[in-house]
């Protein structure tokens, strides 16, 4: 553990003007507050914040960050309060400590009860000042280094999975690869102990049998570059066990089949020398096509810059080589922490693009589970590069589609997307993008995000924006249905209902405004009696005494609402326009529309029934048929031809039974209305290929 004077000396080495008294006060404060508390290792608890502060000095961070590291557990684990911290160390330190504390509180909650508001506050604090995240990453890294002292294997595994799912990806996204690699390896040892032991054992065998092969290859690379007149540093290493294991899992190969176990790093003096070194290596050894990546001209979003290539060395051995300058190397290993080191005099504002995306996700997410899902999507995926037609570069996760690309460019563009061109060709919106694709988004002014997009988008930003748009549309449509229901309810009140009565009803029901009232009626959060009483107190008294309740006088039209948003068509009876329909209204759910003769209605469903009508010119639904064909060649094709001739698109075709000489199929068709579906049934029954056809 660092002693008090050692910590101060470390800070003074890179920041001679640091406030020594402030650092000493913080050190003493954390020792006093944690007092006799012990860690699982048996060490005094205050050794942990002191070691985290030491990690922050390795990154050469400013004195406020060092003080925050010393105090980061005091509010969570002692009697200290944020007000105490602010009083003794100032508002900036208090704000940073509060940000770190909020994430610590989230960790202590079961995942299914994770508080969205706390996570939201942490992400906002992180976006305002990235040092919150840097301290938290240091905190997690030191906890992982001492994880083996925890006796419970279940707890070790839970912490390790959380590290692998959240903290290692966050470290990668801010470019702190050194932290990411160590956290992954320590977590891997707990999550997959057998795989870890096997791979580390095999690496040890290779190391003892290769006779210093890593050093000899590094020397050969250095000599080849020296002969070309270049002064470089070359180092070699084996890839760490988790990296090898992930490659084995992704490629479904054994340890022996992983060819690029060794990686080498070339540190050149300038950017130009990096490209010169690449040329020398490619002319000295054969390079592997498709394995070259230029992150110098197109850096990763976290600022990572390097040239990557893979070479075939002697005896067909494959080795990976990374080429970079010393400045690039520091940024690559410590990312934003290196960029915002104290010596550069920059105040870390944290406003990088992926953090802004996270804030958009925070604003759009509906609940804790959705927020956690979307933020994980945003931080934990391999990346590809895609370009706009004008050459602007965007990084996206593997599997991203044109819809993800559009939302990455701008949320409004994503919302207005109707089509896309990839490399000049019109392609479906669900097409997965490849590295280097040029994507042109085709937009429409009246377009809106579609619920179906959730089935293929790969980014948290796109998913959050789509869900938010669909929710708003759903609210509007439920409110529109509620307005129709409200008019029918108001007609039963023995008085003329005007704007004044509605305003008073909103007040009595403690709602925000008239729109809230209409939404509450549409979503069945308010019953008919409650609405009538709010409009005219006492209006239901006589009805209660007489034990009578007036029936709905006219059917409510669902024209203008979107199936799947304002209402759902029941899957049990598949009603189509032209059927007599009723609606089941359950609290907080869209109206479920059933045909009047649906068998499900006879089972006593606990829901409020409303009389519905399709409205004029309603069309478009899915009709469901059961068709029994004679089991002979060509009958299935004849049935398909009848569907096509009657302009009906087949949505689902499933063979449900075979009993020679018959085959039975369940078919779902896009139809306009009941008349359209009836014509199709008539055509099927008239066909010699069809033994029987009926509607389900």
From TrEMBL:
One of its GO terms (molecular function) is guanosine-3',5'-bis(diphosphate) 3'-diphosphatase activity. It catalyses: GTP + ATP = guanosine 3'-diphosphate 5'-triphosphate + AMP. Residues 624-696 form the ACT domain. Belongs to the relA/spoT family. Signal peptide: none annotated. GO terms for biological process: guanosine tetraphosphate metabolic process; nucleobase-containing small molecule interconversion; response to starvation. It comes from Tsuneonella aeria. One of its GO terms (cellular component) is plasma membrane. In eubacteria ppGpp (guanosine 3'-diphosphate 5'-diphosphate) is a mediator of the stringent response that coordinates a variety of cellular activities in response to changes in nutritional abundance. Residues 382-443 form the TGS domain. This is GTP pyrophosphokinase rsh. Its EC number is 2.7.6.5. The lineage of its organism: Bacteria, Pseudomonadati, Pseudomonadota, Alphaproteobacteria, Sphingomonadales.
């Amino acid at each position: 553990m660092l002693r008090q004077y050692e910590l101060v000396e470390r800070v003074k080495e890179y920041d001679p003007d640091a406030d020594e008294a402030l650092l000493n006060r913080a050190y003493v404060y954390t020792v006093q507050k944690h007092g006799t508390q012990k860690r699982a290792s048996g060490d005094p608890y205050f050794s942990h914040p002191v070691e985290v502060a030491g990690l922050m000095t390795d990154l050469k961070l400013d004195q406020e960050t060092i003080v925050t590291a010393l105090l980061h557990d005091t509010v969570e684990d002692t009697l200290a309060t944020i007000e105490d911290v602010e009083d003794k160390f100032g508002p900036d330190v208090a704000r940073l400590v509060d940000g770190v504390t909020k994430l610590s509180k989230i960790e202590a909650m079961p995942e299914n009860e994770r508080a969205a508001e706390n996570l939201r506050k942490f992400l906002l604090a992180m976006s305002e000042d990235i040092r919150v995240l840097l301290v938290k990453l240091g905190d997690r890294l030191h906890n992982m280094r001492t994880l083996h002292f925890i006796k419970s294997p279940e707890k070790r595994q839970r912490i390790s999975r959380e590290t692998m799912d959240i903290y290692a990806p966050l470290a990668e996204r801010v470019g702190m690869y050194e932290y990411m690699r160590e956290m992954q390896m320590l977590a891997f040892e707990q999550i997959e102990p057998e795989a870890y032991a096997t791979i580390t054992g095999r690496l040890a065998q290779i190391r003892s049998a290769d006779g210093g092969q890593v050093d000899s290859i590094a020397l050969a690379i250095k000599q080849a570059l020296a002969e070309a007149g270049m002064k470089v540093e070359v180092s070699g290493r084996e890839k760490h066990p988790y990296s090898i294991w992930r490659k084995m899992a992704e490629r479904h190969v054994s340890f022996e089949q992983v060819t690029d176990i060794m990686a080498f790093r070339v540190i050149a003096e300038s950017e130009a020398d990096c490209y010169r070194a690449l040329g020398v290596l490619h002319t000295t050894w054969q390079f592997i096509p498709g394995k070259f990546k230029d992150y110098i001209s197109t850096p990763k979003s976290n600022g990572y810059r390097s040239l990557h290539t893979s070479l075939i060395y002697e005896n067909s051995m494959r080795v990976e080589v990374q080429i970079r300058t010393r400045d690039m190397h520091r940024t690559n290993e410590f990312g934003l922490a290196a960029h915002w080191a104290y010596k550069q005099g920059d105040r870390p504002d944290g406003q990088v693009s992926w953090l802004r995306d996270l804030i958009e996700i925070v604003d759009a997410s509906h609940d804790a589970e959705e927020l956690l899902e979307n933020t994980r999507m945003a931080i934990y995926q391999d990346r590809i590069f895609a370009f706009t037609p004008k050459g602007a570069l965007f990084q996206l996760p593997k599997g991203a589609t044109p819809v993800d690309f559009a939302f990455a460019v701008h949320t409004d563009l994503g919302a207005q997307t109707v089509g896309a061109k990839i490399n000049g060709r019109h392609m479906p919106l669900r097409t997965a993008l490849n590295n280097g694709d040029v994507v042109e988004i085709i937009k429409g002014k009246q377009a809106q995000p579609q619920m179906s997009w959730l089935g293929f988008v790969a980014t948290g930003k796109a998913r959050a924006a789509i869900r938010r748009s669909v929710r708003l549309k759903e609210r509007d449509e439920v409110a529109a249905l509620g307005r129709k229901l409200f008019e029918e309810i108001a007609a039963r009140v023995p008085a003329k209902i005007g704007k004044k009565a509605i305003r008073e009803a909103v007040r009595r029901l403690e709602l925000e405004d008239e729109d809230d009232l209409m939404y509450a009626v549409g979503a069945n959060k308010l019953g008919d009696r409650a609405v009538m009483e709010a409009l005219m107190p006492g209006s239901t008294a006589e009805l209660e005494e007489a034990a009578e309740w007036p029936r709905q006088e006219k059917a409510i039209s669902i024209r203008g609402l979107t199936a799947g948003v304002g209402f759902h068509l029941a899957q049990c009876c598949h009603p189509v326009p032209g059927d007599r329909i009723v609606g089941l209204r359950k609290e907080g759910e869209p109206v479920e529309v059933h045909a009047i003769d649906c068998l499900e209605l006879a089972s006593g469903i606990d829901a409020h029934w409303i009389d519905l009508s399709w409205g004029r010119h309603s069309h478009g639904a899915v009709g469901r048929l059961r068709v029994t064909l004679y089991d002979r060649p060509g009958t299935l094709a004849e049935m398909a031809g009848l569907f096509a001739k009657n302009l009906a698109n087949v949505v689902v075709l499933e063979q449900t039974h075979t009993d020679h000489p018959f085959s039975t199929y369940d078919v779902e068709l896009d139809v306009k209305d009941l008349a359209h579906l009836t014509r199709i049934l008539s055509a099927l029954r008239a066909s010699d290929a069809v033994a029987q056809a009926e509607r389900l």
